[in-house]
TrEMBL record:
This is Oxidoreductase. It holds the Pfam family adh_short. SMART domains: PKS_KR. Keywords: Oxidoreductase. It comes from Paludifilum halophilum. The keyword tRNA processing does not apply. Residues 7-193 form the Ketoreductase domain.
Amino acid sequence: MSNHQDKVIVITGASSGIGEATAKLLAKDGAKLVLGARRENLLQNLVKEVEGLGGEAVYAVVDVTKVEQVEDLAKLAIDTFGKIDVWLNNAGIMPQSLLKQKKIEDWDAMIDINIKGTLYGIGAALPFMEKQKSGHIINISSIAGHIAHAGSSVYSATKWAVRAISESLREEMAQDETNVRVTIVSPGAINTELLESITDQEVKSNTEEFYKNFGISADRVALTIKQAIDLPEDAAWNEVIIRPTKQLM
Ligand code: NDP
């Protein structure tokens, strides 16, 4: 029996990619899942798949840039299952481009979804976790939160921010003896729908080529997240970098 059996796990960005793969993997051990994203039909299908795999699930249509919708996702978890054991801040987009192209809408969207969405998730989960004196916040950063390249500026900045916020959170949780664990998961190239968010066609086709050569399944990240959850609760993986074995940078 796995440690995450009976855990209530909230996942943002659950409708595809890493979020979806994680929901399905945890479902196999009977986890209780609370799934948020914007595409309702995908969430509805995922709830059915989760139930077929042996888990329980509810969903809410959530735009993580809307603080009240994120708060409602936390309330849905409490109203349905009575607690929040794990909150996975996973929703994110990666419309990379050169700064000189001045893609201001893309900059704003990355800051709003990748940074503010993560903060709103932390804000929504913490009051319940502090009261429970237990919990686990898992934030998805990226290898791009460790290394910046031409074209990765704003995306890297948002993922760097996720790491900074996570480390401060970790220290605050330890200081207050909340028993809340904090984990940063920083993946390399993972084959998901993420590249669909790239609006610059040249960057998109170059990135697609890179992913075709190096990308690995989202199941690998799901397994990493499951292992982080399964660690005995007096210990936490504070950061995991998971890259394809073949990926150079
Ligand atoms: P996907 O595009 O497959 O998944 C992204 C998810 O985020 C979708 O479920 C999408 O759902 C959701 N999302 C996007 N915007 C919002 C929003 N405003 N509100 C709520 N949900 C939103 O890509 P991945 O699975 O790859 O991405 C998951 C995370 O992993 C992201 O944070 C990404 O930056 C990170 N990552 C991915 C890597 C990769 O190579 N794939 C590498 C490193 C990090 P919907 O559109 O239905 O709202």
